[in-house]
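new request in #modeling-help
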Amino acid sequence: MTHLVDRAAPDGWLSRLSRIRYRGRRVDWQAYLFILPFALIFIVITLLPIFFGIYISFNEWGIVGDPEWVGLDNFREAMQDDWIPKVWGNTFQMAALVVPGTVIVALLMALWINREQWFSGPIRTAFFAPHVVAITVTAIIWIWIFEKETGLLNLALYGIGIPKQGWLTTSKWVIQSISLVTIWQAVGFHMVILLAGLKEIPAELGEAAVIDGASAWQAFWRITLPLLTPALGLVITLEIISAFRIFGQVYLMTGGGPGGHSATIVSYIYHEGFVRFRLGFAAALSLLLFLTILIFTLLRARLVREHSN
Amino acid sequence: MSNLGLSTLYNRSSVRFIRTFIIWFPGAVVALLWLFPLYWMLNTSVKPDRLILAGMDLIPTEITWEHYRTVVADTPVIRWFINSIVTSVCVVAGSLVLGSLTGFALARMHFPGRTVIFWLLISSLMIPPEMSIVPLFIGVLRLEVQDSFTSLIIPPLASVFPVYLYRQFFLSFPRELEDAAAIDGCSRLGTFLRVALPLARPATLAGAILIFTSNWNSFLWPLLVAFKTEWKTLPVGMAFYTRLDIQGTSTQSGYGEAMAAVAIVALPTLIFFLILQRYFIEGVTQVGIKG
């Protein structure tokens, strides 16, 4: 077979190319053509902008006029800016509620649906549905639910004797309210990932443990949870990333208010970059956001590794 | 088997029914609560003004399309709808072409750099999109493509998700299929088009639905590149209705219109989801398990 091909094109560069081997197999040169279109877009839209963004963060860069190299000034300013501790603090508080809240609720829902009881299908649909609507939809519905005088939450609580609260208008409640909305929307997605993880665990394992005298509770902690670690790790990582990037709900529901009590990192980036057009400073903030997320995801990975050792 | 008597008692169907019910019931209540905000949106959007705050009827006693008519009259909703549809459909089509070609190469072709390219793509997922948003925005302004489909459609095409989805799918292909195609004289492109792609239908459907939904719902990027009202997408345009209630004026008319407005944004993806649920779940599962 090979000598036939060789005779057809004895010494052309193409045939020489086609005989090049990599790790014992012929190289599929056409693969590069398959990859080329996406690679170009990925380089132009993702890769180059990341490096260009780092460059911009060392510049004073407005929407008009020429950019000016200012070295570390943007970062120095960030260190002294009063808003930075505030927006980072707000975001940490939201993440501290949203990440555990979402993961625990999603896990409970997944365990519950995995029992395959009555109406499991429609109930799974109900949990997932909020995930498919736009943030504008979520925000506007919940603005009404949280509204002080005519909101459904206050009406319901008033019925059982709890006084009306300004859920989105007082610093006491605004972070909790936004976190609740975020959890409501995110939980269905993570439930599906965890459900897929649960389906991979052979049912006999749990049954065997129960026969060996373990309680259902012990079986959960000793068997189900350890085997679910990969799926849980993925869910926690995705949730950390998205909690640190909370923007739409804040932009639409409170505009960062009252008094900046719900302003998040990304809403501050939006404000500095695209309202005040301080693009250099916004790029520096984005870099700090990336580092924050990186630290937390690495911490997460490390915790899991130590836990499983 | 000393505890035989106890276990027969335990297994009696009525006891089991009660046990199951005790676990089932709270979950069912939570499911109803979870669905309630979306249900209330639809319910309010068809209620006449005077019944919105007066009656907490779970099923509307009177139905009106008035609020939808007002939304269409007050905002360029048809234009926004077209922007959203054109953008989402183009992004879906483009992403599927790019993703399937790249995913196929990464899963089934042998070439130096394959592993490096894959890990580069995967690790880019750890970098928040906000990192590239300032440079992309500057690029859009320099090229003067703000307020255009170019700026709405091209950046989302760089998403790694479709590449990953197809790669995972093609990895599970039996080797023999390609060999058979090669013996029949198919080129690599021929194998891809005639054998691999038709068999990848589940991945294509799951990808199409998830990409469509995420682009339909996309918020920050379309907010930045639409300076003129007529270039807004539906979710960005409908943000207008946050103003109606936030001041707490409790004007009755606000809620019906606001709920009709967001129902217009929500219904396409909700209907899509209800019909094609299976593929939604499969898509998310693919990403989850094999990740």
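bot summary: Residues 12-66 of chain B form one domain.
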